[in-house]
Specification:
The chain is an alpha+beta fold. The protein has 2 helices and 6 strands, in the order E-H-E-E-E-E-H-E. Helix 1 runs antiparallel to helix 2. The model has no long low-confidence stretch (mean pLDDT 89).
Length: 112
């Protein structure tokens, strides 16, 4: 099993959720986050004063998938999240040793 973490632009969330649902993904965790990379933020005006916005709003998607659908899920996220502009985000993949569903005690792939 693998854990996929994807940091994406907020307006792409619904499209990615639909693309992952087509791959059989029925659950994920979504968190509103802030950060920056090469995008480096931007300046904004507020009440006539200019200030620097260092951290940009992003969305972090976390999901656990079986090894056999990992690549199709990554491709779905990449294809859907890509705008071709700076700040499209990143995907991280981690090994998952064990998953336990608290309610039933199911383990590993049956708990996903």
């Amino acid at each position: 099993m693998k854990k996929i973490e994807a940091i994406i632009k907020p307006f792409k969330l619904d499209d990615i959720r639909e693309a992952l649902a087509e791959q059989g993904i029925s659950g994920m965790t979504v968190t509103e986050v802030k950060g920056f990379g090469r995008q480096k933020g931007h300046t904004e005006l507020y009440r006539g004063a200019e200030y620097m916005v260092d951290f940009l709003p992003k969305v972090k998607i976390e999901l656990i998938v079986s090894d056999d659908i990992l690549e199709t899920c990554i491709e779905a996220i990449m294809k859907t999240a890509q705008t071709g502009k700076i700040g499209d985000g990143k995907i991280f993949v981690y090994n998952v040793e064990q998953v336990i569903r608290i309610r039933t005690g199911e383990m590993d792939e049956s708990a996903i």
